[in-house]
Each structure stands twice: as C-alpha cells, then as structure tokens.
C-alpha cells in the first residue's frame, strides 16, 4: 500500500504540532505556579515561554540535575529589562528572601552547576549566592550604590574591582571593565551572576588576609557587620529550607558554613570593614539555626552537626498558630502579599478597623457602598450587614500596632516590591 507524500507530510505536521502543544502545556502548567501569575497579561506569556523553554533546553544540554534547578514555586515572572522583585517573608523565623526573577533563573542554575562540576562541595552553594545578591541588590542588575562605587547584582565595590584587575586582569576583564572615567561596569547579567562563584574560590587562594591589606581599615567591624552577617545567614538558610521542601538533598554542613562565612567576610573586606571573628560568626549561625523549626534546617542540620539540646526545640513563637506583635518600642509592618486581601491577616473586622484607624495608616480605610458612593467606616458596629471593602492593595505596607494578633506566622507571606 502506497502512502501519498501529502499524507506523510500531514502526519509529520500533526506529530510536530502535538509536540509543540505538549511543550506549551508544560510551560503553562509551570507559569501558573509563579508567585505573580495573576498579575501577568498576554504580552508576558510569550516572554515567559521563551525564558522557560530556554531553561528546559539548558537542563538537557548541560545535564543539570534536579537539585540544581530552582523550583518554579520560588520564582517570579520578570521581563528582561524589569527591576521589579517579589519577596517571601516568614514572620516566625524573622526572615525574608526574594523570589528568583525568571530572567535570571537560568543563569543562576547554570553557574551554580558549572561551579559545582569544577569545585565540588567547595563551590559556593546556590542558596548562599542568592542570599548575598538579594541582600546587596534585591536582584536588580542595574543597582548602583555607595555613591556610584558599587555596581550590579553583587554590588561590586570599585576598590575591589581595581584590586582584582591589578592581581589577575586576565580573569576579571571577562566580567567587568573600566570606562574612560575610571568607573567599572559589568559586561552583562551572566557576568554578575557568575562573579561570586569565581570570586570566592579565587580570592581565597590569594590568601586575602594579606592581599586585601590595602583595602582594610582595622577600626572594628561593629554592629553593622554583625547585622549584615545575620541577614545573609538567615536568608541562605531560608533558601535552603525552601529548596528542600521541593528537593530534599542533604547539606554538607561544614562546607556550607565555611563558604557562607567566607563570602560574608570577603564582602566586608571589600567594603573596607574588618572581617568578623569565626567565634562571632559561629554564634550568630547557631542562634539563627535554633529559631528555624521545620523544613530543611530542622531535619538536616540536626542530622549533620551537633546542636545543644535546647536548640532542638522550636522557638515559642513558631509553635503558635497566631502571632502577637511585640511591645518592644519597634515599628512592625506587613506588606500585603500578591493574590491576598488585607482581611486574611486578621481574626475579625474590628481588629482590621483598629489597625487601619491608626494614624500611621492614615491613607488606608474601610468603606461600604451606597448608591455607588464610597462611605468610609467610622464605627464598625454601625455598618450592620453591609459588605465592607478596603482600599488596601497587594504590595501596600501596613503598620501593625503593638499587641495586634496576626493570623498564622507559619505562613510565608509573599509580598511585591516595586
């Protein structure tokens, strides 16, 4: 039986179309898991499809294993020229991290895997690099700080850039260059992402305690350095915990800690600050671990390192279903997460009314509609059975007075920051 050329061509087209449909369906299934999917519009879909298909291709060509892939649930859609980012905050562990923007995700996955293939466990872990770059620039590749002295995702300081050019220009000129005015610039986004994966092991080989003498000023590290270290440690552990909820891979604790401490101290050195003593870093690390009560840290760290008995117990606040804002003289805020309304953070309308009535929230209010007119609520008890609305939107920052009860601090609060 002979089959016509047209029939063979038709079969081929159907097969190819089916394959494309299957790929697009997979992209769509991933897309709806993005934290900001509900805010995406038609023009974003094609951009994300190209980004995601490029990732699929990279996984196959570079043989990137599952545990080096950033879970799509921890990503946010972002166009190639945008600087918007989304944050994920856990009140119980007092830590926030950034969802990895989709325009950077493939770069982080590839460079983490390439570094691991070359250096093994001595390579900086992806969670460490994400924590440091989010802390430095909130994933903004165009970020400029320290009066134009720090640039890009890692916020490379100009004195460090000069030092690196002086000691190994052949390596570092592939990452950044100096213009005719003496200002330094990264060559592209990949160079920014790759930088810490190369910087950390290379500078360690330089014996930085000697090579960095020209940059350091021994005038004490101070509380700011300790606060910076605490922030990066918290975020790196939170990333590890979040990754582990999707890929439960045991962590090499010793190497993780060493690389984490190194990248913190090298950042401090590059900013002309004295590095923190190891005993201080260990104490900060130990204190933070004691506050993490579930996921990766709880199950893995106890298995791989000795922790005092009292640290094995979750901190008291983590055991509570609700969280009471402390009365400690500090101001506390929430940022309404994407896809949520303000009512979801409180037990009842009276508590919400009290919060929005605070003078620090003067731009926010509750209202009901009467013949299409907005009537502000001045007394919640007089509203009766009318439907109540608020003018609070996702991304708004709301002051929460001391003593106010928030619902479930165990919930990670996703927030959008412009």
Quick overview:
With 418 residues, this protein is α+β, with helices and mostly antiparallel strands.
Q: How does this structure look, described?
A:
The protein has 418 residues and is α+β, with helices and mostly antiparallel strands. The chain has two domains: 82-319, no CATH class; 322-417, no CATH class. Helix content is 46%, strand content 13%. The protein has a three-stranded antiparallel sheet. A three-stranded antiparallel sheet has the order 5-6-7. It has a three-stranded antiparallel sheet with strand order 13-12-14, with no helix packed on it. The longest helix is centred in the first third of the chain and has 27 residues, at 5-31. The N and C termini lie far apart (65 Å).
Structural descriptors:
2 domains; alpha+beta; 418 residues; 13% strand; 3-stranded antiparallel sheet; 46% helix
Compressed to H and E, one letter per element, the order equals HHEEEEHHEEEHEEHHHHHHHEEHEEEEEE
Straight-line distance between termini: 65 Å
Low-confidence stretches: 11-23, 214-220, 294-320
Q: Please, how many helices? A: 13
Radius of gyration: 25 Å
Domain unit count: 2
Overall shape: it is: globular
User: How many individual β-strands?
Assistant: 17
Helix content range: 40-55%
Secondary-structure content class: alpha+beta
**Fraction in beta strands:** 5-15%
- The strands making up the biggest β-sheet line up spatially as 3-2-17
- Look at the structure and give the mean pLDDT: 79
**Major pleated sheet:** 3 strands, antiparallel
């Amino acid at each position: 039986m002979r089959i016509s050329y047209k029939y063979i061509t038709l079969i081929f087209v159907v097969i190819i179309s089916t394959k494309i449909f299957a790929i697009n369906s997979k992209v769509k299934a991933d897309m709806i898991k993005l934290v900001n999917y509900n805010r995406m519009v038609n023009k974003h879909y094609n951009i994300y499809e190209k980004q995601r298909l490029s990732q699929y291709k990279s996984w196959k060509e570079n043989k990137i294993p599952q545990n080096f892939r950033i879970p799509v649930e921890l990503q946010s859609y972002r166009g190639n020229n945008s600087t918007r980012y989304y944050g994920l905050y856990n009140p119980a562990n007092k830590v926030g991290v950034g969802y990895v923007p989709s325009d950077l995700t493939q770069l982080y996955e590839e460079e983490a895997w390439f570094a691991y293939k070359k250096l093994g466990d001595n390579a900086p872990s992806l969670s460490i690099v994400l924590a440091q770059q989010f802390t430095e620039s909130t994933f903004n590749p165009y970020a400029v700080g320290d009066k134009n002295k720090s640039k890009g995702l890692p916020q490379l300081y100009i004195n460090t850039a000069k030092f690196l050019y002086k000691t190994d220009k052949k390596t570092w000129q592939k990452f950044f260059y100096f213009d005719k005015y003496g200002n330094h610039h990264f060559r592209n986004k990949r160079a920014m992402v790759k930088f810490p994966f190369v910087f950390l092991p290379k500078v360690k080989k330089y014996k930085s305690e000697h090579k960095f003498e020209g940059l350091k000023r021994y005038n004490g590290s101070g509380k700011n350095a300790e606060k910076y270290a605490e922030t990066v440690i918290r975020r790196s552990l939170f990333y590890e915990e979040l990754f582990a909820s999707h890929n439960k891979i045991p962590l090499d604790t010793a190497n993780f800690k060493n690389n984490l401490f190194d990248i913190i101290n090298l950042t401090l050195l590059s900013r002309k600050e004295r590095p923190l003593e190891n005993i201080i870093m260990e104490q900060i690390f130990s204190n933070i671990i004691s506050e993490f009560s579930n996921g990766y840290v709880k199950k893995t760290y106890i298995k791989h390192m000795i922790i005092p008995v009292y640290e094995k117990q979750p901190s008291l606040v983590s055991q509570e279903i609700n969280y009471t804002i402390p009365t400690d003289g500090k101001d506390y805020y929430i940022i309404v997460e994407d896809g949520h309304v303000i009512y979801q953070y409180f037990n009842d309308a009276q508590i919400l009314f009290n919060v929005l009535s605070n003078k620090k929230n003067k731009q926010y209010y509750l209202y009901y509609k009467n013949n299409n007119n907005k009537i502000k609520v001045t007394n919640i008890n007089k509203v009766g059975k009318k439907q109540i609305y608020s003018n609070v939107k996702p991304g708004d920052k709301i002051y929460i007075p001391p003593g106010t009860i928030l619902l479930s601090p165990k919930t990670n609060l996703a927030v959008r920051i412009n």
